[in-house]
């Protein structure tokens, strides 16, 4: 019996945050750890269990679900268990509500004959770090964002930067402890932080949100869905804004469904086969793929400006409108695009990975959410950056100014409609001779990404290093 216990694989508790941009990459990481001999228990709730089911089926011996009731919260209606069903302004409420899982998880962990040796929790589940400390095990923070996009909010909540009363949205916030000392306008700062500092959150939420980020800085380290080819300058030395903690850069991680061109847990409105058949009619690199992710809600003005720009530019396009934006496409636009034979409007979700890998897709107009960024980078597709909130402005600057695989589509911002003529010109330039340099650079970066995830690459080395670190904890 003692010999069997000694050879038992290390047991890791994984705590995802229930959002489309958060759960899939962390669960994909869990699958990578399972394939390397670790055993994972993933904490979830009944409404989020379907997101785990495909990977649980692939790794039945190594991955298990701990299903707990979603904690009740006065600001959330019963049955609402994932942020995909509401706007980004609810993220703080979900962070506060999920902290209610701490005691049930603690009770479960203490009752296990096979104790966990580490806890890996999403960076919006900061309460998991004191939970790990109470269990006497290592706490690790998983970041579904890049290192830069992770360091910025932690810096803000650590330093409590404020905007002078007489200043507008152009007020500049500097980040002197980050390489290159980047600075961003107030309008580009995280909506969650601005709500916190400007009194837009109830006091109980304010306390919980800031404490979430401070708890992360008490962890053993960060596991980031990023890679050195994209963010090497932010990985060379530990960052003060991440508590000088070690960062394992293991990205890009992708689930089996992502690799097969799936729609990341959502029900696709068009199959990969049908989308590919439509794209087959167009020359290589001629189509612009347009999607703003799972959380962005377009206003009528924004949708009208985009529709007009697409028509005026005359570029072939696929516009994935998203399930939450029904009715926003201007009347008659879809019919005109179809009649012209150069536009496809998808009224829901689409198999994005498959689309980006199709030879006809030459550009990706994106909100610069990190999952979308990584998918485009891996596919070698340059981007038209249209950031809206969260880490997206930092990601846009990284892509445009540092990686040089994107151009700015517009200034961006939630509900900010660009000038349709200016946007049409950006689209036309990208599809023409001016876009060829970025296309070449995007393909170079894709080759670097492919090398980094293979044996001997930095992401593969960091993943193996993480596994070894966890194995040491069980000794």
Q: Any overview of this molecule?
A:
The chain is an alpha/beta fold and 475 residues long. It has helices spanning 2-6, 23-34, 49-58, 91-98, 102-110, 128-135, 147-159, 191-197, 203-216, 228-231, 256-259, 272-279, 300-313, 333-340, 352-357, 370-379, 392-403, 420-431, 436-452, 458-473; strands spanning 11-15, 39-44, 63-67, 118-122, 138-143, 172-174, 183-185, 221-224, 246-249, 287-291, 317-320, 343-346, 361-366, 383-385, 406-408. It is built from 20 helices and 15 strands. It has a 7-stranded parallel sheet with strand order 3-2-1-4-5-8-9. A 6-stranded parallel sheet has the order 12-11-10-13-14-15, sandwiched between helices. Strand 1, helix 2 (23-34) and strand 2 form a beta-alpha-beta unit. It is globular, with a radius of gyration of 22 Å.
